[in-house]
Structure formats: C-alpha cells, structure tokens
Amino acid sequence: MNGVPMLKHVHYWRPNGDGFYETHPFQDSCSFLYTHHRNRVGMDIYRHNLCTNESHRLTNGDSAICEEHATALPDGSIIWISSRGYELPKPGAPDWSFKGELWIMNQDGSGPRQIAFFNTPNHTHHDLVPGEARGKYWKAASIEMQGGYPH
C-alpha cells in the first residue's frame, strides 16, 4: 500500500511450545532446519516440514549439549556445531559462549560424527584457529577446511 513494504499471509508457529527458536536454511522446498531449547541449556536441531506440518528432532536431546547452526549440504547431509565433549556454562553466566566443533550427520539425523577438532590440542585443525578465537564456536566454524568437508 502506498509504496510501503508489508508482509501478507504471516503464520506463527511453535511446534515445541515456548522457548528459544533459531531458524536455519531450507533443506528443500518444504523443509527447513531450526534449533530449539526451553531454558538455554541443551539445544537440539530439528527439521520442520511445511508441507506436512511435522517436526522431527535430529539430535539426541541431551540437556547438557548445545547443537546449533545447522546447514544442509548439497548431498542432503547436515553440518552443524556441537558442544559434545565440552562443559557448558551455567545458565545466566555473563559470558554464555561455549566450545564447539563441526559435526556432520545424515539428513534423518543418523550417523553423526565429528569432522573438525579446532579445540583439540596437538590436532592439525587446532592450529587453523588463532589462540584468542579458539573455544569460541562461531569463529572456529568460520574457518573453511581446504578441499571441502570430509565424508
């Protein structure tokens, strides 16, 4: 109207009830990935299908693990950041960052495996991340692995 941008046909949706939601890219024309948690401790990755209105949890649901920033690769597998193997900060901590590594899984959530070891001393990946950024998952995840991601 009158040259003012506007949205139409907006739908609100909360498949898992209250809590924090973070959307990730679409996997295909009907489904997208998202992260959800209720209390900022333990985040899981889900796939929601807009055509069937169904959501499926893809990661394990452990309340002591954060799984987030999922992206579907061209072959359908999913790469994401996980805090598996590292301790999380307590809820309400002033700096709520955590160590994480890159993992890969099949599009149905099966076959998860770690593919990067940025926080593992003496591993070749460890030296790819400057010391001041090590442990900060968002910076470590931005390092591109030469030759693509291993399968």
What are the SSEs and their pairings?
Blueprint: E1 20-26, E2 31-37, E3 44-49, E4 54-57, E5 67-72, E6 78-82, E7 101-105, E8 113-114, H1 137-140
Antiparallel strand pairs: 1-2, 2-3, 3-4, 5-6, 6-7, 7-8
Summarize the entry for a quick read.
This protein is mainly β and 151 residues long.
Mean pLDDT: 76
Low-confidence regions: 134-151
- The CATH class: Mainly Beta
Might you state the CATH topology name?
Neuraminidase
Q: Rg, please?
A: 17 Å
Into how many domains do the coordinates divide? Answer: 1
- Counting DSSP E segments of at least 2 residues, the number of strands comes to 8
The separation of the N and C termini measures 50 Å
Which secondary-structure class do the elements indicate?
mainly beta
Order of helices and strands: EEEEEEEEH
Helices, by number, come to 1
The strand line-up of the biggest sheet is 1-2-3-4
Helix content: under 10%
Taken from the alpha-carbon principal axes, the silhouette is globular
- Write the CATH homologous superfamily: TolB, C-terminal domain
* Share in β-strands: 25-35%
Query: What is the name of the CATH architecture?
Result: 6 Propeller
- Characterize the main sheet: 4 strands, antiparallel
Describe the model.
The protein is an all-beta fold and 151 residues long. It has a single domain (20-86, 96-140), classed as TolB, C-terminal domain (Neuraminidase). The chain has one helix at 137-140; strands at 20-26, 31-37, 44-49, 54-57, 67-72, 78-82, 101-105, 113-114. The strands form two sheets. The chain has a four-stranded antiparallel sheet with strand order 1-2-3-4, with no helix packed on it. A four-stranded antiparallel sheet has the order 5-6-7-8, with no helix packed on it. Strand 3 and strand 4 (54-57) form a beta hairpin. The termini are far apart. Mean pLDDT is 76; it is low at 134-151.
